[in-house]
Amino acid sequence: MITIEQLEKFGVDTKEGLTRCMNKPEFYFKMLKMGLNNDQFAKLQDALAANNLDDAFEAAHALKGVLGNLALTPIYKPLAEMTEMLRAKKSADYVTMYKPILELRAKLVELM
Questions:
Q1: What is 34-69 written as a DSSP string?
Q2: What is the pLDDT of residue 1?
Q3: Which listed site, 68, 78, 90, 97, has its alpha carbon 20 to 30 Å from 48?
Q4: CA 6, CA 111: separation in Å to the nearest integer?
Q5: Distance between CA atoms of 64 and 81, rounded to whole angstroms?
C-alpha cells in the first residue's frame, strides 16, 4: 500500500489532494485508486494511436479533471499541456508525449 510520503516523493501535492477528500487519507487513497484505474487512460491511448484528436481531447480533458482533483501533479501537468494542444488540434507526436504519463501511472498503480 502506498503512503503519503511515497506520493510526495513522486511530486504529488498530497496536502491539496487530502483537502479535496475532507482530510481523510483512506478516502483519498480510495479516490486515487479509482482515478488511476480510470478507463479514460485506455481511451486516450487508443484515440492517440488512431490519430483521432477529437476523441483524444475528450479523454484527456476528462482525465485532466480527475487528476487535478486528486492533485496528481506529475501526471496532471503534462496531461494538461497535452489537453490544450489537443484542444487547438496542434500537430505533435502525442503518442510519445503520453508515454511518460503512462509510465508514471503504472508505477503509482503498482504501489497502490
A1: HHHT-THHHHHHHHHHTT-HHHHHHHHHHHHHHHHH
A2: 79
A3: 68
A4: 9
A5: 10
Largest CA distance in the chain: 42
Joined grid coordinates for residue 90: 496542434
* Half-sphere exposure (Cβ direction) of 86: Cα atoms closer than 13 Å: 27
Between the alpha carbon of residue 1 and those of residues 6, 33, 88, 92, the distances in Å are: 10, 11, 39, 36
Query: pLDDT tens, 46-58?
Result: 999 999 999 999 9
9, 94, 56, 67 alpha-carbon torsion, rounded to 10°? 10
Give the number of other CB atoms < 10 A from CB of residue 26: 8
Q: How many residues are given for the chain?
A: 112
C-alpha cell at 13: 501535492
Q: In the numeric block, which cell numbers belong to residue 97?
A: 508525449
Distance CA 47, CA 14 (A): 30
